[in-house]
From TrEMBL:
The lineage of its organism: Bacteria, Pseudomonadati, Pseudomonadota, Alphaproteobacteria, Caulobacterales. Residues 1-20 form the signal peptide. It comes from the Bacteria. This is Phosphoribosylglycinamide formyltransferase. It is an enzyme of class 2 (transferase). It comes from Brevundimonas vancanneytii. One of its GO terms (molecular function) is phosphoribosylglycinamide formyltransferase activity. Belongs to the GART family. N(1)-(5-phospho-beta-D-ribosyl)glycinamide binds at residues 16-18. GO terms for cellular component: cytosol. It catalyses: N(1)-(5-phospho-beta-D-ribosyl)glycinamide + (6R)-10-formyltetrahydrofolate = N(2)-formyl-N(1)-(5-phospho-beta-D-ribosyl)glycinamide + (6S)-5,6,7,8-tetrahydrofolate + H(+). Residues 7-187 form the Formyl transferase N-terminal domain.
């Protein structure tokens, strides 16, 4: 008898490379989760076509029609997630600051991946900041989403050496490769414990 997989939604704003790795890992027979829907705040985001190609429902809830009312936008997304029986939300390049309402609604059930070794370099421009600081390594972190930006409990990290001559773009590509291994594993571990 097979055990039902945890139903995961992935929120994206761009190309969806981490989303694609989450979908692929979730489609394995022994995976404890499956991605059942992908939602973007940007119409035509590249990740939407990738999701559809993988057989996953892909939806857009544009933020612009909601103006400055971020909570109203999030309530529209939340309604879609609830309709689809989503149990866990994974942020994968979702470039919107979340309101306390959505964070609270999905407390302890929303994950994010960040391209630094948190608590170092929360926010943006992480690779440039690591290089400028003279760090020997960079990496990525999967964490539970809380109201503070990139402050939630850490679920896993992957380390990547910083090479002489690295630019932020070169380093970003190596970190992204590490993300694609880390995020599916951290999500699987998380849902097995939940």
């Amino acid at each position: 008898m097979s055990v039902a997989k945890t139903r995961v939604a992935v929120l994206i704003s761009g190309t969806g490379s981490n989303m694609a790795s989450l979908i692929a890992a979730g489609q394995a027979a022994d995976a404890p989760y499956e991605v059942v829907v992908v939602v973007s705040n940007i119409a035509g985001a590249g990740g939407l076509a990738k999701a559809e190609a993988a057989g996953v429902e892909a939806l857009t809830v544009e933020h612009k029609p909601f103006g400055k009312d971020r909570e109203a936008h999030e309530r529209a997304i939340d309604a879609l997630l609830v309709e689809r029986g989503v149990q866990v939300v994974a942020l994968a390049g979702y470039m919107r600051l979340l309101t306390p309402w959505l964070v609270g609604k999905w407390a302890d059930r929303m994950l994010n991946i960040h391209p630094s070794l948190l608590p170092l370099y929360p926010g943006l421009n992480t690779h440039a900041r690591a290089i400028e600081a003279g760090d020997l390594e960079a990496g990525c972190t999967v964490h539970i989403v809380t109201e503070g930006v990139d402050e939630g409990p850490i679920l896993g990290q992957a380390r990547v050496p910083i090479q002489p001559g690295d630019t932020p773009d070169i380093l970003a590509e190596r970190v992204k490769a590490a993300e694609h291994g880390l995020y599916p594993q951290a999500l699987a571990d998380f849902v097995r414990r939940s």
